[in-house]
Design goal:
This protein is mainly beta and 306 residues long. The protein is built from 3 helices and 15 strands. The radius of gyration is 21 Å and the shape is globular.
Amino acid sequence: MASAPFQVTLGMTADLIPTASELARAGSDLASIQNALEPRYGTVQEGFASMGGILALGGAWSLEPFAESAVVGSLHNPVVPELSTVFVAEGGLRLSGRFYPLPDWILEPGLAAALGTARSLQAVGTDFIDHVPILSGGTRVLAPSLKVARDFRLGHDWTIASSALARYSLWGASVPGFASAWRWNVAIDAARPVAPRTSLALEARLGPQPLPVAVLPLAWDAMHPSLNSARFGAYVGGGAKVEYAWASPGTGLLARAGLYGGYVGGEIRASWKRFSLDASTWGLEEAAAFQGLEGRIYSLTADFRL
């Protein structure tokens, strides 16, 4: 590997920072707390940040040190203020392999392990005045994964990229708000050139939070253990992306848009040799039953090649 990629991602709902700021200003004044929370009842506010780099170990294996943090807060009960929040920060290593057992087939086993610290807050009514109960403790996670992919050409113009991913995150935490969880995803992309240095790809996804990019942190599944939505649309995604490559290698533009998990999403990415910047927005299903509850995430990702 000629260079070592390094990535930083930041994502959050649009109302996360305003909600936290208004609660901080309200202090222990229950009327001010009620005014801050009332227009937000029934919503989920969340955010995450992550960073990591990839180090080649030689042969088919690579090692990725990573660090991430995430926070999820939900607001309930318009009569008595009720706030539930979970925060985690962790760091660990991810070991990945890449093998070619058959022509056109790719096998990618992986194993991630991390240790961290967590905070859990459950406040109802006068808890905001007397004492906000905050539980602190440690977290640990072990997450084996397996991805099988096949890339091949169809006719003279189309390139088909297909993959299936399964990952199980085994969590241990001394505070409530975390649960072990499966993540699976099936992806099919069909791309063809449509103009000089320009390609169009149609993409389909199947799985929970069927996003076309891996933007969610490892802790996201553990912090949303009840999101087994009964809506079929929450597991299906599809869209299109257009890529334009300038004459200079590694330089170009990408635009993507579609309907993923029943919500509109998209991204724009600009790449310049060893640096790229990506801005995106995705709708995430936050309901655990038939009714839909959208959590709109806005994220920014920067990639460097050192």
